Amino acid sequence: MRGRNRIALSDCIDCFQDAIDNLHDSLNVLRSLTGKTFGSKIGDITTWVSGALTDQDTCLDGFDSVQNIRQVTLVQNLVTYVTYVTSNALALVSKLATTGPESLINLRW
Fold first, then answer.
1. Which of 7, 61, 85, 86 is deepest in the core (most CB within 10 A)?
2. Membrane-spanning regions, if any (predicted)?
3. Closest by alpha carbon to 15, among 65, 67, 60, 80?
4. Number of neighbouring beta carbons within 10 Å of residue 52
5. Which parts of 33-104 fold into alpha helices (H)?
6. In 3-state terms, what secondary structure has residue 101?
7. Gap between the Cα atoms of 90 and 65, Å rounded
8. What's the CA gap between 38 and 40, in Å, rounded?
């Protein structure tokens, strides 16, 4: 890869590092979530997972103007899959937010 493709890949790596950081933050808070901290922390978790999705979309945006070569297509397919999984995680967090702290009773991490 060279030129624009290399720049897009470098930007994508930066975006994914941000996404990973957001997801780690979310998981760490989820693991320590209690009924007392639920209200103040569930919004943070939702924001971080949403931010991870935004970072992943930004990664894909960087490839819009590059040549459609095999490596770029592979990266795009992998990012699309990870975005799908992250979107599912956001749906689960949103469901947890609507069910409230009582849903934590039988939840094990």
1. 86
2. none
3. 60
4. 27
5. 38-61, 70-99
6. helix
7. 29
8. 6
